[in-house]
Amino acid sequence: MQLTRIEREFTKFHSSIKGLSGCGYLVQEEIDNGYVIMPRGSDELVLTLMAVTHGDEVAGLAVLNEVVEFLQAGFVPLQVGLALLLGNYPAVLQGKRYVQRDLNRSFALQGVETGEAERARSLAKVLQRTKFFIDFHQTTAPSTSCFSIFPFQRRSLAFAQLVQCEQPAVTRLGGRFSQDGMCSDEFVQEQGNVGITIELGQKGFDPTQIAQGVLIALRALRSVNAAASLDSVAVTTPLHTFGQVITYPASGEARLVEGLYNFKKVARGERLGTIDGEAVVAEEDGAVLFPKYKFDRQRPPHELCHVLREIVAEDLLQE
Ligand SMILES: [Zn+2]
Q1: pLDDT digits (tens, 9 = 90+) for 133-146
Q2: Helix, strand or coil for residue 144?
Q3: In total, how many domains does the chain have?
């Protein structure tokens, strides 16, 4: 049933972006399902918005379409080069996170030949030129709020603050999230530019999440238009980093207690689940992130759940 909505949004994506050439913009489909839109007299790509990097996280596609409507109506004048990308549309058609391999662990990947690795190379042609980047995702479990998540970089944190206002940011220090390939935001940051991921909320075409996403995209357009100096932005947004990780055991069973969701507050000592019948408790006060309930028991996820630790920006800058 949802496929109909997806097909409608997909058709609209192509037709409305192409329609922008009638509004005085230069529109080019530089890669499959990826457009660069330039105001006349400009040739610098400044902002890139990407959706469906994970094929079953669809709300971002509707966000991009709404942004194009604002541009078409002339409500938002585009003063800088903007790219709009659909990460993994083959996975969207299958209603899956990915087809062969997680696209968001496939950037700058060597020696792996999958459809996703090839797609990452194609997307990289655009991503390596952009100054600012937002990748729209959604979560499996419900979430109390939309949040940003990205490797720590001072300017990316400031950008997250500007586009999200007071919604929480989750950031991690040092090193690759995953050894086998980069996330999209990580790849953009590696080029010395600003990249963040936005988690809008639980998967699906939720209208309030789409509205949130549009607001974030419009704030991003305004922020880069104003060329605000990110170095001087004071960070006041609630900030978290990864604390405890509950990993799935190499052999045996693990299970979370019912009712965990993203940003659910937990207290030290609170029971979070069981591993091989033994209770697992929160090691400190914090908030739950990415709890997993439904998965293939034959191929369980590496991480069953995270507990976030609340920090302030100064904690990161000192390290
Ligand atoms: Zn995702």
Answers
A1: 999 999 999 999 99
A2: coil
A3: 2
